Amino acid sequence: MLMSSVPSVSLVLSFEEARRVVEQQAAASSAPQIETVDLLNAADRVLAEQIIADRDLPPFPRSTRDGYAVRSADLSQLPATLDVIAEIKAGETLERIPSNIPSGQAAAIMTGAPAPSGADAVVMVEYTSERDQRVEITRAVARGENIVPAGAEAREGSTLIPRGACLNDAAIALAASVGKSNLQVYKRPRVAVLTTGDEIVNINATPGPTQIRNSNSYSLAVQIAKAGGYPVLLPIAPDEPQALRRLVEEGFLKSDLLLLTGGVSMGRYDLVEQVLAELKAKFFFTGAKIQPGRPVIFGKCGAASSGRDARETYFFGLPGNPVSTMVTFELFARPMLEALAGMSPRKLKFVHAKLKSEIRVKPGLKRFLPAILSGEFEGSQVELVRWQGSGDIAATATANCYVVVPEEREHIKAGEYVPILPRTM
Ligand code: AMP
Ligand code: MG
């Protein structure tokens, strides 16, 4: 009998405990395979090598202004007049740069040009006037002002970007600056998506009066891709154990991570946990004290009792309500997926904003409520969207974040600063 193999002890954890369990499993997962990509295709990929500085950055003392390279001590009396002995533009050849700027002399210099020896500061051109090879300066400079010393940004041989970093625009710029036209990155993990439910139909089908189109596979595909995975959509599974089991096994074989949606609550036709138990899955938790998303399941399973493959695959059973699916992906599936994608672990990102209208909820669950963050700078504020609960995709599509309500809170007054989990954009 299927029911007997479902874990008997309660594995419903607090949000924090559930996160910790996911983080532990994520830390224990092994590194994915590596591929080489062109720098222009490397954005948002996870770096599988270290990027090392091939020379000092900057490679020479770099002027950050257009102006005059001077000895700062020469400007103790103002205005000061100095002889202009050279002009140094960005990219100037070494032979044309004076070997020394003696006291009483200066060199005209441009932004990005190497500051000559002897000079210890650059005066901005705005505070100077030049006539007949002499410059009058009306403003003093501190030693070092407007010059970035060679190697101040990075020393030759130092690590600029560590393995496991996700490549953003600045990282790509750094890689370019050290001449890397190709980068070694981790292969994207394959994430199988298996949606369950007798009422769920394909989006190309015309739904009957009591049927619902499958939206979860599509929101998950977006979230998976943004988290660095490659989504593989499986056919919709009916609420029938044999067919469900076949598709779960197919999911395990085809993927590095299996995400199921629906069928994890207490209803008579919620069969996901039973089918997984039958496949000898190990469950880390079978619920978390959150809303939306309480019935979320996390575990791992040896490759589908097929015996062909000793590998174990992690899975999440995400609740079927569309908003629950989105929220539980962000909170739990994302960190696991990022680890399988080779990424170094990172914490959830929260911002804080002022609450526009009060919140009243029952205590006992940590809540992630769809909300709209609006305004700018000091004027930003956040307000919950009016919704019909975790099935309400229409309201949630207007939200750009989730307000986090701690489990002990019943009432949060307008004007209080609340933590916000930004929505994946
Ligand atoms: P379940 O978790 O299976 O009890 O489903 C909870 C709710 O989510 C039900 O109203 C389902 O019809 C709905 N639901 C489940 N799967 C999907 C899906 N793939 N797309 C849209 N709605 C879904
Ligand atoms: Mg269902």
Word description of this protein:
This protein is α/β, with parallel strands linked by helices. The radius of gyration is 30 Å and the shape is elongated. Helix 3 packs parallel to helix 6 and helix 4 packs across helix 5. The protein has 4 domains: 184 residues, 3-Layer(aba) Sandwich (Molybdenum Cofactor Biosythetic Enzyme, Chain A); 44 residues, no CATH class; 87 residues, Molybdopterin biosynthesis moea protein, domain 3 (Molybdopterin biosynthesis moeA protein, domain 3, Beta Complex), CATH 2.170.190.11; 72 residues, MoeA, C-terminal, domain IV (Beta-clip). It starts with 11 loop residues before the first strand and ends with a strand. It has a 6-stranded mixed β-sheet with strand order 8-5-7-6-10-9, with no helix packed on it. Strands 17-14-18-23-22-19 form a 6-stranded mixed β-sheet, with helices on both faces. A 5-stranded mixed beta barrel has the order 24-27-26-28-30. The protein contains 7 helices and 30 strands. The structure holds adenosine monophosphate (AMP) and magnesium ion (MG). Adenosine monophosphate (AMP) binds next to helix 3.
